[in-house]
Request: fold
Amino acid sequence: MSNLKRRLAAYAVVALGLGLTAACGGGGQPADAPASSQAAASPASGFPVTITHKLGTTTVPAPPKRVVALGETDQDTLLALGVQPVGMAELTGIQPDGLTPWSAPKISGTPPKLLKAGEAGFSIEEIAALRPDLILAAGDYYIDKEYANLSKLAPTVAYETGPAEDTWQSVARQVAKAVGKPAEGDKLVADVEGRIGAVKEEYPELAGKSFALTSVFPSGNIGVLKSAADTSVKLFGEFGLVLPEQVKALPGEGFAAELSMEKVKILDVDVLLSHYNDDPATQRKIEANKLFAGLDVVKRGSYVPLDLKSFWPLRTPTPLAVPYVIDQIVPKVAKAASSSAS
Reply:
């Protein structure tokens, strides 16, 4: 199972069947490279720091200088705080360097070692070679299986609630505390939340508009998010949009439901966003289907196709991804919303 599929499985939306893969190897910083200047420059006070999480209690005895991050929110928070990890998760399929457009600008000097994630999680040997003094793994879906071994290498911090269930805000505060920057973490969260709040003022046309976020299979079936507890749904809600009752009522216990094309009428909402796993043939097939093309939301121009660079930050909000969503994706959603009926 790919890195992205593992994380989507944690959201109980494996039905979305996406194609971002974890690479089989990693480039970047060698094991004997010095700690990054960001991590080593300004030792923080207040140590030791003790963090309680779902898998136990972790004490960080001193300001860490060689941090390994095993989740997107973990590593994006570090980068936003000016702390460059010596190792972090590699994500291929978004851009060739294994980074994301929102994290790459924060990398400087010798880049982190990009770590692979396989069927059973990350390689303990690769992580050990980096000689970490702190491992952040709130975003690692398999940390429950890896925790005992990782904790032998360095203090290891896991999720507070469950695999991929913590909000980006709670992970950001946890990461900031672990590296001795709690005040900076609070400010980071407040700044990003401020940007989220400003969206409603800048784009009042979003208020109260219904939406659906989907991912389309090559078979033609459509996965649609239906749970108000889903991370993406919550983010859209913060922008002022609402998940309509017909989508919430779709059957199944997970965060998503799978629709055949015969049921596509349910997606006739104010704004429809669809991801096609960067598969142009599938996109053409769906858009040419009479049932899909006949939807009012499509005919009036309130339909927004998403590439992976747009879809992934919606699925994995972080302190860096959310501003990217606001700058790059929200304007498209607002344009679609302005075309919808009041």
